[in-house]
Amino acid sequence: MMQALTMRSWLATLVTALLAVAIWPDPGQSLPQGAPETVCDTMLPFHSGGSVLPQNSVSPFSVETSSSTLGQGQTLRVDLTGVPAGLSFGGYMIQARNRNPPHQIIGQFGPARDGTIKLMNCENSVNNSATHSNAGPKQQVILEWQSPVDFLGQVVFNATIAQSYNEFWVGVPSQPVQIVRRDLSAAPPLPTQSPSAPAGTTRAPYVPPSYVAPNNVVAVSSDPIYNGCGQSKNCFGFPDGCVATKSCTSITVVTVRGDVFEFEIQSGKGTNAAYVAVGLSDDAKMGDDLTTECVPENGRVNLYSSLTSASPYSAVRSNVNQNSARLLDASIVDGVIYCRVQRDAVTNVQGRTFDLRNGKYHLLVASGSSLKENSVGYHDIGRLPSAQPINLAEVQDLSGSSRLLIQLHGAFMIAAWIGTTSLGIIFARYFKQTWVGSQSCGTDQWFAWHRLLMVTTWSLTVAAYVLIWVELKQAVWHAHSIIGLITVILCFIQPIGALFRPGPNDKKRPYFNWGHWLGGNLAHILGIVTIFFSVKLPKAELPEWMDWILVSFVVVHVLVHLIFSIGLCLNHWQIGGMASERHLSQRANTFQMGDMSHHQQHAMRNGMSMERKMDAPYAGMRKGLLGVYGVVLILFVTVLILLVVLAPIEQFLGKS
C-alpha cells in the first residue's frame, strides 16, 4: 500500500512538473505561443501542487500606466519594466480587473505592430488578456489597453512575470486607474468585441504573491483542504463539527512529516474576514498562545507570528521571532483567505518554549473582520479552542471546547445579583407594612418572599462559584475575581448570621439589624461591580456595550428605591399624625372608659386591633410599582443572560 502511494505521489509530481514546463517555460527554453487560456483565472504556470512556487519577495518588475484617470472607451499605455531599468524577463501575462467585487476582467488590449504580443480571449471575452508571443529575454513590454464604454470605477492591472523557470512573480499590481464618464464618440476604437460576448468575466482575481486558485471544475463542496482530515492530517475549525460537513467558517489543518510542521489556515466564504489565525494554547484559554496570523494587506497575504495576552486582550508580534514561521503558499479568492505555513519545531518566546515535537497543545482557531495597528482585531467572526490538547503528529478527530461552565457561571451570577437580590432587598425594606395579616408558611408575606429570594441568591452564587473553579482549575487574580470572592464571602455568611438573629425585644437586635442591612447591601453593590468587570474579560467574550445595559439597570434600580423611600417617608408622616390625634383623643376620653360597659370596651379594643392589622398608607401604589419593577427586572435579567449564553453576540447576530 505504501509503495503504491509512493509511486502515485512520484507520478503526480512528475506530471505536474512536466505541465509546469509546458505552460510556463524558462525564457531560454520557452515555447513561442505564450500562456494558454487555461490559466486565465489563475495566471499561474502551474497549480499549487507544482514543484516550484512563486516568489514571496518584492517583485523586481513593475506595471506602470500612462494615466491614473481614463474616460470610458479611451486608451492608455501599460508598461512592463524591470527595476532597475535594464533587468530582463521572458514570459508574462497581464489582465485588468475591477478593483471591487466581483473583480471581473475589464477592457481590451490592442495588438502590437511587431507581433510580439499575443492577445487572449478569457471567459468568452475578446482580447481582455495579453501574454508573450516570443519568450526571448526582453527589458520592456509596451501595451495599449482600452476601457469599456459601460464601466465606471477603478481597475488594477495585474501581471505574472517570469525571469526564469524557477523565478517568477504572480500578481504584480499597478496603481489603480479610475474610469470616468466620457463622450463615446471620442473613443478611438480597438479591435471590436463580439456583440454576444459579455463585458467581462465573473471569476475572482488572484492576490499576490502566490495565488492558489481553486479547481474551477470541482464543486465547491469538495474543497481540497478537507481531503485526508482525520486520516493523514489533523483538521479543526468552527463552528464545532464543521469538518465533517465541510462547511467551516474558519479551519486549520496540521500536517506533520518528521520535523516538518505545516499549518494550512483558511477562512470561510462570505465571512468578510480581515484575518484568519490559529493559536497553540496550553489551556484552551486566550492568553500566552503562539499564534500564526494570515492577513491580506496591500494586495497580498502576509504572515505574522504573535503571542496573545489575555488582560487586556492583544496579539503582540514584537515578542516573537518572525522567522520562526515561513509562508509557503497564500491566496485570497472570493474573500476566502488561505495560507500554508511551515513553523519551526521549537520556538522560544519570552522564556516560554513551544515544542511541537514533544508538547501537547490546544488548537485555537479565530478570525475577525477588523485589524489594529500592528495587530489583528477582535475575533468577532468566531473563535473556538479544541477540547483536548494534542500532540500535533498524532492524527485524530478533534472537537471544540465547551463554554458551558462559563456560560452557566455568568447566567447564575446575573440571575442572583441583578434579579433575586434586587427584589429581595425591596421586599425587606419597603413591604413590612404591606399584606399585613396575610401569612405564607407561618410568616409574614414580606419575610417569606425575602427569605425565598435570598436563599435563591445564596444557592445560585455558591453553584456559580463552584462551576468557575471546575472550569479554571486554578486561581486567577484580577479585579473581577477579587471583588467576586469578597461578594461570595459576604453572601455565604449572611444566612448564617440570620440563624443567630436575636429576639425582637433583645437589646442586641438593633446591632444585628444594622449588620445584616450593611452586609446585604454591600454584597449587592459589589456583586454588580463584579459583573461590570466581567465585560472586559476575554474569556467572557461580552460586547463592550453591555456596560450601558448595566448602567441602565442601576439607574432604574436607584430610581425605584427613591420612589419607595419617598413613599415610606409619607407613610411615617401620616402614621405619626394619626398616632398624635389618637393620643389626644384617648386622653380626652379616658374618663369615659370607666363608665363604659365591658362589651363597649371590648369592641373598642377590637377596633384598635383591626387598625393595626391594616396595610400602611399607599399600599396600592407600592404593589403597583413592585409589579412594574418586577417586569422590568425580568427583562434586564433575560437580556443580560442571553448576552452571556450567546457570546460572542456579534457572531450570533452576524449569522442571523
Q: What percentage of amino acids are in beta strands?
A: 15-25%
**Uncertain spans, ≥5 residues at pLDDT below 50?**
1-31, 184-221, 587-594, 606-611
> At the first level of CATH, what is the class of the largest domain?
Mainly Alpha
Structural class: alpha+beta
Please supply descriptive tags for the structure shown above.
656 residues, alpha+beta, Immunoglobulin-like, Four Helix Bundle (Hemerythrin (Met), subunit A), 3 domains, 7-stranded mixed sheet, 6-stranded antiparallel sheet, 34% helix, disordered N terminus
3D architecture notes:
The structure is a single chain. This protein has 656 residues and is an alpha+beta fold. The chain folds into three domains: 146 residues, Immunoglobulin-like; 176 residues, Immunoglobulin-like (Sandwich); 208 residues, Four Helix Bundle (Hemerythrin (Met), subunit A), CATH 1.20.120. The chain is 34% helix and 24% strand. It is built from eleven helices and 28 strands. The longest helix has 43 residues. It starts with a helix and ends with a helix.
